[in-house]
Amino acid sequence: MSRREAGKTSATGQERSSRFRVVGDGSQLGPPDAVYREEVQLALRNRGTPLEGLRYPITPAGMHYLLSHFDIPDVDVSQWRLEVGGLVSRPLSLTLDDIKARPSVTLAVTMECAGNGRALLNPRPISQPWLVEAVGTAEWTGTPLGGFLDDVGVSKSAVDIVFTGLDQGVQGDEIQYYRRSLSVAECRREEVLLVYAMNGRPLEPQHGYPLRLLVPGWYGMASVKWLRSIECIGEPFRGYQMVGSYRYSQSEEDPGEPVTLIRVRALMIPPGIPDFVTRTRLVKAGEVTLTGRAWAGRLNVARVEVSDDGGETWSETELGDPVSPYAWRPWEYRWAARPGTYTLCVRAWDSEGNGQPTTQHWTFLGMGNNMAQRIDVVVE
Length: 380
Ligand SMILES: Nc1nc2c(c(=O)[nH]1)N[C@H]1C(S)=C(S)[C@@H](COP(=O)(O)O)O[C@H]1N2
Ligand SMILES: [Mo]
Prior knowledge:
Bound molecules: the ligand Nc1nc2c(c(=O)[nH]1)N[C@H]1C(S)=C(S)[C@@H](COP(=O)(O)O)O[C@H]1N2, molybdenum atom
Strand content: 25-35%
CATH topology of the largest domain: Sulfite Oxidase, Chain A, domain 2
Helix content: under 10%
Radius of gyration: 21 Å
Number of strands: 24
Number of helices: 6
């Protein structure tokens, strides 16, 4: 099978008309009932954080969402090296112990996938079908990238730094290693780290063992896992994951704008108890404390509001302190629940006045849809 066929033939043998597919007709909000086998296949590999996991300020590693485009690579750490090269005065080949011997920092960071909200779109792009659960907060330990770059002597002519993972696959008809770049200026921000531990333990294989990049405030795609090399280059990097994906575009032809920082979002821990299949909530009448968390990438969360009538009217919630400058903060609201059926909604506003929309923010690749969360509740 050619690489083009690998991207065109689905598990069910269906032919695809293009690299990308979109399903649904746009006539209704919410996904059409039929889900593709490929979406289930991706969802089983790339789990979301169960929403009740939002109760923990630091998400337990086993509950943190996952997104890996290709396979989790097999790494023998005794053979593994981080290769640092390109426009630097001292190219290096480093062991994990070399990196661990450097100054270390631990930082709590809320990471969110840029595709979070994708499966709520109509029409729906076929890819990892996130509803709203592609977010987690971990305590990451590693060494600041900026100091590391000083030590290797990045040339003044360097523009971008390219981070390459050990994971290889086919995407958009291209055989590739997962590879993303950042500008030298972004790389020098103090919160950007090369990390080898998560929640006080070595990275688990699925989270990037032995070493990953961590770019707080950016959507997750910037935080390259399973690092094999860091290369400084003199022109903007145009790899597939920069120009072919992670764009806010309206069609396959539209280059759009690059996806960068995390947009404001709040989530609610679904109250009461769930129906097994539909996840509709059953709540006892009386005062119910609604809680959840909100984040805004590099910005602060200024306000969180809830609605019990599907977004017609909103009430302000009480905010708790952020876990760190790059992590979510809790919110709380006392809801007088009277018997009936409700659609609870929550939305947040960042410190620059950006709020979450109540209707979908549609893009061709399903990026950055931070539409307010909705939860159906029956109060008895
Ligand atoms: N090498 C590599 N790094 C990667 C990815 C990948 O597929 N390969 N996925 C990215 C995406 S899209 C996200 S959202 C985050 C997810 O990190 P996690 O799986 O540790 O939660 O990793 C990023 N880093
Ligand atoms: Mo992602």
